[in-house]
Amino acid sequence: MGSEQDAQRSRAVARLVVLDTPEEQAFDDIVFIASQTCGAPIALISLLDTDRQWFKARVGLDVTETPIDQSVCRVDIDDANLLEIVDLTQDERTSVNPLVTGQRAFRYYAGAPLKLRSGDVVGRLCVIDTEARPDGLSDTQKTLLGALARQASDHLELRRIARASERMVELQKALVEIGECIRDSADVAMMTHRTSAVIGRALEVDRAGFGFVDDKVVSVEIEQDWTAPGVESIAGRHRFEDYGAIRDHLAKGEPLVIEDVATDWRTADDPAAMRNVGVEALVNMPVRQNGRTVAVLIVHSAVRRIWLPEELIFLRSVADRLEAGVSRIRGAQQQEMLNDEISHRLKNMLSMVQAIASQTLRDIPDRRPVETFEQRLVALSAAHDVLLQKSWSDADLRAVAEAVIETVGFGDRVSLNGPAVALGARAALSFSLVMHELMTNACKYGALCRGGGRVEVTWSIRDADDDEETLVLHWREQGGPPVVAPNRRGFGSKLIRLGLVGTGGVDLRYDPSGFEADLQASLRHLAEA
Q: Less CB within 10 Å around the terminal CB: N or C of the chain?
């Protein structure tokens, strides 16, 4: 063995995924019919592997394989015609074959090629006799042997298609699991490690990992990889040129597929570089962004391996998904940095507004309006901080309430009780001002201005007649001085009466035993505002 045709044949046989599989009735029937048709005691479906011939089906022979150099089927195999040798002892190609000269004493051979639709000849359907047959097979027998060989070839390919379909289902399940890993991972390292583990198990390889390459695709920084038991990690920085001529493919965005580092031209000059890290076969699948390779998905096998088309499609799909996942996480990280910067600058702006107001209003004798203005800025800032935690998408009602209460104080005398409610950005800011005014009034005139006084804030969701859910929030004060309705309405009172989203829905009651307020608004409006 060793010719390019032999290597191509070996790959074709491997892609059939049939070597070392159990007996199957369809192939057993073919060799039985061949034996009966040709009147031969031995019939075989022989497939030519790299260093052996393996029999998918056999009649009259007690072994499943022989060394490749004992194979008569490989004689003139690239001729792709029926081979007949009427006396093996008289043919120079077979006269010294141990199967001829030894105990088995083969004397007659006829074999029809097993030719796939790709044109590859992967072996022969052969009949063997222990008696020389000077007259050979009849024309009819030769025709039937050829027809049976074509049947065997078709069965091999149909079997391969069925196996590929089953494999695709398995890999699709792995893709679903990988999608969940990518979706649920909070950072790139976790995402790539969990994904590599699924790849390793699905492909039954020895190592899988993901690494980012530098701008010139000279080196790769491999994240924490997944390895089979007993296999060392290669996490860290590596130069491509240290492992052979493998850089150019990746730079061009082409998958690097090597089935045998000892024979592949890109690694054959120094296969030890790969073998030192336990690699006999590999796939490097590039990840591209804006027309250049930015990362690579790495899969290693510790034995020579033919990578099947469906496996390469699977790895391509995984690489694309990882690229999208990494972009999502990095985008979120950049957005978080941007939000932090915006938050920092907005806080500075609010502080500046506060300072300008203090300086502008410094000559006003009555400091209460100035202090109220400053406190309202602080309440807005607190709501702003809560919104930033979710990138200004929404804020939880309880979180906003707790943030405002913290700026005013008396948190130990205010109870909060209700389900989670998502407030849109405008609703969150509006609610923070309402909450601040209610707290301020309670501190000045209500329950919180006297020791032992308390405030109870509860909320619930109610189904309205029009099937639209409504948030109902109750403010209850207890233990304060007797309540007297105010004679005039200031700005704070107007803020409260504007309600949760500035559309009203407010009922204020000045019961002598304690101030009460009911506020309600459409849950949909609160979320969308």
A: N
Residue of higher predicted confidence among 94 and 390: 94
Please state, in angstroms and rounded to a whole number, the distance separating the CA atoms of residues 474 and 485: 18
Q: Which residues pair with 221 in a beta bridge?
A: 212, 237
Q: Of 477, 393, 474, which Cα lies nearest the Cα of 427? A: 393
Instruction: List the Cα angle 514/519/525 in 5-degree steps.
Output: 165
Of all residues in the chain, the percent with pLDDT exceeding 70 is 95
Say how many C-beta atoms besides its own lie within 10 A of residue 162's C-beta.
10
* Under 8 Å between Cβ of 504 and 480: no
CA pair distance 491, 41, nearest whole angstrom: 108
What's the rounded Cα separation, in Å, for the pair 114 and 78?
11
Residues in the chain, overall count = 529
Contact 213, 326 (CB under 8 A): no
Confidence band, pLDDT 50/70/90 cuts, at residue 133 = very high
| 112 CB-near residues (< 8 Å, 6+ apart) | 82, 124, 125, 126, 142, 145, 146, 148, 149
Which helix (H) or strand (E) covers residue 53, if one does? strand 52-59
Q: What mean pLDDT comes out for the span 368-378?
A: 75
Distance in angstroms (rounded) separating the CA atoms of residues 127 and 35: 6
Query: What's residue 496's pLDDT?
Result: 80
Say whether 277 sits in a helix, a strand or coil: coil
Residues near 438 by beta carbon (within 8 Å), at least 6 away in sequence: 475, 496, 517
What token pair was written down for 252? 């061009």
Q: Angle at which helices 25-38 and 139-184 pack, to 10 degrees?
A: 170
pTM above 0.70, yes or no: no
Whether 137 and 38 have beta carbons less than 8 Å apart is answered as yes
Give the pLDDT score at 476: 94
**Digit-coded pLDDT (tens) for 137-183:** 999 999 999 999 999 999 999 999 998 888 889 999 999 999 998 88
Q: Distance between CA 313 and CA 491 in Å, rounded?
A: 66
pLDDT, residue 357, reads 74
Strand partners for 387:
none
